[in-house]
Every structure is written in C-alpha cells, then in structure tokens.
Amino acid sequence: MKARKGSSGFEARMRAGECYHGQRLPPAAWVILRVDGHGFSRLTERRFGKPFDPTFHAHMVAVATALLERFQGVFAYTESDEVSVLLPRDWDMFDREVEKAVSLSAGLASAAFATACGEVAWFDSRAWVGARDEDVVDYFRWRQADAGRCALNGWCYWSLRKEGLAAGEAARILHGRSRAFKHDLLFRRGVNFNDLPAWQRRGTGVAWERFEKEGFDPLRGLAARAVRRRLAVHRELPLKDEFGRYLEGLIRPPAAAS
After folding, report:
1. CA–CA dist 110, 123 (Å, integer)
2. Phi and psi for 66 in degrees, rounded to 5?
3. How far apart are CA 199 and CA 237, in angstroms?
4. Which fold has domain 22-202?
5. Cα–Cα distance between 257 and 248 in angstroms, integer?
6. How many CB atoms lie within 10 A of CB 180?
7. What does the pLDDT read at residue 239?
8. 234: which strand partners?
9. What's the pLDDT at 22?
10. Alpha helix locations (H) across the chain?
11. Model pLDDT for residues 211-223, shown as the tens digit of each residue
12. Which of 79, 223, 226, 252 suits 35 as a labelling partner, its CA being 20 to 30 A distant?
C-alpha cells in the first residue's frame, strides 16, 4: 500500500534524491529559455531543402510562438533549429523551478514541432540568467551574430556540396576562411549574401503587439473599441545597435525607454 505523503521518513528520503528539484531561478532576474533541436542535422537533410527551407523555418516559428504564448514570455527569437524565449522579471510560473522550466519548455517545443512537421522530434533546453537589461540585449545580439555566421557558412557549404564535393572536402575549403572569402565564393556562384532573405541572415522574432478591436457595448447600445494584444512575427529584424534599440523597446516600460 502506498504511504501517504509525510506519513514516514521513507518519502522524504526518496524525494531527497531529486537533486535538482529544489533549484529556482533567481528572483527578479531576466531569464531566457533556449531550446535546441536534438539530432536535427539528420532530420533536416532528409526532410528539408538546404541550406534554408521556408517550411522548416515556419515550423520553428510555430515552436517559438507556442513557447512565447504558453510561458507568457516577452519575446522569442529563432534562428536555425533553436528558439530563445525571454521571460519577464516577475515570471512566477512553476514557482520559478529550474527543473520545471527546462523540462516543460523542451517538451512543449518537441510537441509543437512534431505537430507541425508530422514527425517525432526532440529538443533540449537550458536556462540563461541576466541581471541587467543590457545583458538581455547582449544575449540576443550574440544569437543574432551566430545566425549570420551560420547562414554564411551554410550557404557556402551547401553551394560546394551541390557542386559534387564531399562533406569533408567542402568543410576543408571553408575552414579558417574569412567572411570576405566566403562572400566572394557565393558571389562567384551568383549569390549576393546581403540580398538573401533577412530571416536567414538575422533570424526571426515573435513579440506581443497591441491592437484595437471593433466591438459593441450592449449596455449603452454603442459601438466600442477595445485594446487587445496578439503575437506578431518579425522576419525583417534590424542589426546591431538598431536591433538593440528594438529589444529595449520590448523589455523596458514606456517611461523607462523614453
């Protein structure tokens, strides 16, 4: 017969083995949950076009949207097979338990992608913590820089592969090469990297926006307008300092941002 909770030291001893269960995210800190596709190289090579596939990207935007909505975040950013979700400072879901935040975000990302894709997929998750608004801006600028680097390398690598080069040979040609070399490699093949879609080079953001909705006030018998909020997908994100200002506008209250 199962012992009732607290009826003996047996349950307490067993629960003591849950070594990470009591860890909580620091109070009032910015938290970002980042999920990454597990084993996605094989999945994407088998199912999607290279170096970028609009359908795969749409699946990742679906993951970002699901995470942002379910975890009531401030902003979500996706590039390649990862999504970063910024949680508000006063976020209190799951009592800020690290174990819950990480496991449930990975589980939701896996379910959302599998639903969109029609195939089982796994994500892992980690938590990043920052004390200042500036730390948050730096974090997303870091991920955007990674998006640009990966996009350039991906376009070069798959351009060489499509010409018949083996994986190792294509990697060897690109190893240690400068950005200028890679830009030139693509240009000689008719691709201007700077003209590629912004979502490939800069990633995509998902954020809440407010809008007015037409309605009707039955008590007064008059038309009325109500302010609602909805999720908006931003595929034309700015770069560097302008990206920083865009982020500041999302994370700071209007009075603080002015």
Report:
1. 5
2. -60, -45
3. 8
4. Alpha-Beta Plaits (3.30.70)
5. 7
6. 8
7. 95
8. 205
9. 76
10. 9-15, 40-47, 54-70, 98-117, 133-162, 167-174, 179-187, 198-202, 240-251, 254-257
11. 877 776 777 777 7
12. 252
- Tell me which of 18 and 177 has the higher pLDDT: 177
133-162 vs 167-174: helix crossing angle, rounded to 10: 130
Taking 60 as the threshold, does the pLDDT of residue 124 lie above it?
A: yes
Block residue for tokens 């008590």: 219
111 CB contacts (<8 Å, ≥6 apart)? none
DSSP characters over 117-136: HSS--EEEEEEEEESSHHHH
Q: Which two tokens stand for residue 127?
A: 């938590």
The pLDDT value recorded for residue 8 is 77
pTM: 0.89
CA–CA distance, 188 with 254 (Å, rounded to integer): 47
Residue type, 144: Q
